[in-house]
Amino acid sequence: MRANLLQWITRNWPIKGAALFLALMLYVAVQLQQPVTTSFDVTLNLQLPPGRALVHKPPQIRVQISGKGSQILKLRSLAGDITRRIPTPSRRRPTRSTSTRPRSSWRCRKAQTCA
């Protein structure tokens, strides 16, 4: 009985191995097309105009992204920082301030209350 089982498993093993490999590759390909939501931390780099300085270092930002698994894998391989250039104020325009805090709609969820 045991010899028959072993013979059954080892018979045509190259074909069985190739079939198993192709099945695993098909599984991975299908999983990479499924929608995925993930979050990770990125660093915010600010490019300031000459004569300007930061009072506090910008915090790390938690980013949540959704998309196909293959697209998210491509994004995760990029550098983990965001660069924002702060424009030089002109005399004709009023001075603007740029906030690094998230907007309330970004941090509120349906189940949470926002202040």
Description:
- A three-stranded mixed β-sheet has the order 2-1-3.
- The model is unreliable at 104-115 (pLDDT under 50).
- 36% of the residues lie in helices and 23% in strands.
- The longest helix has 20 residues, at 13-32.
- The chain has a domain at 35-88.
- It has 115 residues and is of the alpha+beta class.
Provide the gyration radius in Å: 26 Å
Order of helices and strands: HHEEHEH
Main β-sheet description: 3 strands, mixed
Overall spatial form: rod-shaped
What structural class results from the helix and strand content? alpha+beta
Counting DSSP H or I runs of 4 or more residues, the number of helices is 4
The total of beta strands comes to 3
Mean pLDDT: 76
Layout of strands and helices, then pairs:
Blueprint: H1 2-10, H2 13-32, E1 35-47, E2 61-68, H3 69-76, E3 81-85, H4 104-107
Parallel strand pairs: 1-3
Antiparallel strand pairs: 1-2
Give a nutshell description of this structure.
The protein is α+β, with helices and mostly antiparallel strands and 115 residues long. It has 4 helices and 3 strands, in the order ααββαβα.
